[in-house]
Amino acid sequence: MPGRRAAALCAAVLLTTAPAVTAAAPAAPTAPAPREAVSLTPESARAFTDDRVAALLEEYGAPGAAVTVVLGGERVATAAHGYADLAEGTPLDAEEHLFPTASVAKSFTAAAVLTLAGEGRLDLGEDVDTYLSEGDRLPGPPVTLHDLLTHTAGFAEAVEEQAPATLGETLRATAPERLFEPGEYTAYSNYGVALAGYVVEEVSGTPFEEYARENVFAPLGMDDTEFAQLADVRADRPLVTSHLADGTAVEDPHIGNVPAGTAVTTVGDMALFMEALLDGGRVDGEQALAPGVAEALVERRSGAHPATTGLGYGTYQRRAGESPVIGHGGDLTGLHTGYAVVPEIDAGVFVAVNGDDAAGANPMVDLRLAVLDAFVDTFAPQGYPAGAADPDADLGAYEGSYVTSRRAASGPARLVALFDNVTVRDAGDGTLSVRGALASDDRWLPVEEGVFVAENGADLLAFVERDGAVAAIATDMNPTSVYTRTGALASPSLHLVAAGAALLVLLTVLVPVQRSGTGFTLATRLALTGTALAAVAAVGLLVYAATDLAVAQVWLVEGSAALTVPMTVTGVLAAVSAALVGVCLARGLLRPFSRVHLPLAALAGLVLAAVGAVYGMVPLPF
User: Fold this and answer.
1) In what order do the strands lie in the sheet with 99-100?
2) Are 398 and 470 in contact (CB under 8 A)?
3) Distance CA 502, CA 604 (A)
4) Bridge pairing between strands 282-283 and 347-353
5) With b meaning 16 or more CB within 10 Å and e meaning fewer, what string describes 497-527?
6) Residue 38 contacts residue 378 (beta carbons within 8 Å)
7) Do 68 and 42 touch, CB atoms closer than 8 A?
8) Which residues belong to the signal peptide in this entry (predicted)?
9) Which terminus of the chain, N or C, has fewer Cβ atoms within 10 Å?
10) The dihedral of CA 121, 127, 133, 138: what is its sign?
11) Secondary structure element (H or E) that encloses residue 463, with its range
12) What's the start-to-end Cα distance of the chain, in Å?
């Protein structure tokens, strides 16, 4: 959800190692054929919720999970496993307990926007400034509600306001910069969806929470669902406790971007929502959502490439292909939710997990996703098209470095881009080598022009062209962002190599050697020693955050001084060291070895500080 998913993703990629070995090329096409589908019936649905989910809960080690399945307009299976609160030993009750939805709430917000649009009070293609007061209007090219609901407005990742404030105040305080032109690329944005909700509030003249309750939840019969701050809900309703991987309870966060993720719900209410999505907005045969709303939620409205997953309004495809799977996921610290509807079999599943997995929270591989994937793979399986190596193909046009489009424009949250990136190389045997912390495989085989399938069958990627040149990569696994191509000097891989080499050089000043000379040379060595120690502290704290997801989330979201002060000190001392080295050289105060060693060490400190500045660890006055 809200700004925490990017933080969690950064922590996850810090802990993930990209494949290091290229497998031998097979002569035959690859991509596993989909398994035979199990017929979804009330009986097989109950077996799934009762047995399969229980087994997955035990495997992943989360505190509790609740799940529900709808089929043919009815809720056919519901189950809860584990605990609502570990400290109290409270069993999880699927009928009674409420769950924070996190970003699943974006589907509700889109429904609210579409309801107003259906009444002719909003135009999805109109500049949103039309609906905002002068002080709230956006600088730059016009942005539409279509852009906001499909995450194509071009916003940088924004850190939301944590202090209590109105929705308008929160949006004004956290307005992000633009990284792309509207409609150019997908880049998931909590701010963008929150702004869409604010438009609803401004046009309807009703607080957003109230509008959603009266026009979305009440017609659907979702009586236990509302937009509200979690601490307020917990005061008088049975809201589950969120837990870290070690079982520690998580304090309820304040979420300023209300429409992006503050809703709470029950599995029963989510069953009603999924039934409406599958039946044109109808529940029990009665029209609940305004005509056209449900269809607009589940239809593909945007996508980087037709071969990969795309987005609807407030939803995204979990699987593309002939039988798309549509839904949304949500993440808070210690809380993970998700739903998926499969129109082809007229079915849907919702799951809520009130804790991180025992092995730690990885937003790309967790219990919530395991349940959703198991449901689809069991009842509506599908595979990717086969690929085959083409030794005669020239794949050099695809080579380069690509960085996630969901990235911050300033501050230490820019560290996400340092780790969430991929490097593409022509393997020389008619395949591509794709390396990165979140790459599904190292070896990718051509399917058609610009489209490749992972050799292990885990993902599909497609290259996006702009003006006749390769500009980005879209993957099937993640419809919420793309990887945009960077220049050689902007390559995160180059930055990591440069920083690593610079740190090694800088550490040599800590090696004891016979030192003598003037006060100037001693001051120079002391400055370089301080630079090295500050650099070690900066890297050490970064590594520490990488080993503790909860710490990484807090530090990244809050822009902790732990990520900025040590590297800033490194930069200041490196500049001082460089100046002192220059004086020593000009006065001839250094011995032959030091004439080479100390300038290199000073340069290494400056390189480290420069890399830190690029990724927001050194605040700059410009």
Assistant:
1) 99-100, 263-265, 226-227
2) yes
3) 4
4) unpaired
5) ebbeebbebbeebeeeeeeeeeeebebbbeb
6) yes
7) no
8) 1-23
9) C
10) positive
11) strand 460-466
12) 31
Residues 197/112, Cβ–Cβ less than 8 Å:
yes
> pLDDT tens, 390-400?
999 999 999 99
Distance CA 331, CA 367 (A): 12
3-state secondary structure of 321: coil
What pLDDT digit, counting tens, does each position of 558-607 carry?
Answer: 778 899 999 999 999 999 999 999 999 999 988 888 999 999 999 999 99
Structural tokens at position 119: 């009444």
The residue assigned the tokens 């917000």 is 109
At 144, is the secondary structure helix, strand, or coil?
strand
Which one, of 365, 373, 314, 294, lies nearest residue 340 by Cα? 373
Q: Tell me which amino acid residue 576 is.
A: V
Give dist(CA 114, CA 290) in Å, integer: 8
Copy the structure tokens of residue 161. Answer: 């306001």
- Identify any residues that bridge with 254 across adjacent strands, giving them in sequence order: none
- At 15 the pLDDT is 34
State which amino acid sits at residue 137: R
Q: What span, in angstroms and rounded, lies between the C-alpha atoms of 320 and 615?
A: 34
* Domain range annotation of the chain: 18-33+385-488, 34-379, 491-614
Evaluate if residue 552 carries a pLDDT over 70. yes
What is the maximal distance between C-alpha atoms in the chain? 90
pLDDT attached to residue 619: 85
DSSP 8-state symbol, 343: G
Q: From its phi and psi, is residue 440 left (phi > 0), alpha (psi between -120 and 50) or beta?
A: alpha
